[in-house]
Every structure is written in structure tokens, then in C-alpha cells.
Design a protein that fits this description.
The structure is a single chain. The protein is mostly helical and 22 residues long. The chain is 50% helix and 0% strand. The radius of gyration is 9 Å and the shape is elongated.
Length: 22
């Protein structure tokens, strides 16, 4: 996992309802 936009996206997806996880 590259420490780039993926790290920020993961943190945002966790709080956002559009994370795709749930």
C-alpha cells in the first residue's frame, strides 16, 4: 500500500457513508 492518496482515502471513507465498506 503506497502511503499516498490511499491513506487519506481510507481515513475519509471510515467517516464517510460512501466508504463502500458498509
Amino acid at each position: 500500500e503506497a502511503p499516498g492518496p490511499r491513506r487519506g482515502a481510507r481515513r475519509r471513507a471510515r467517516r464517510s457513508r460512501r466508504g463502500g465498506h458498509r
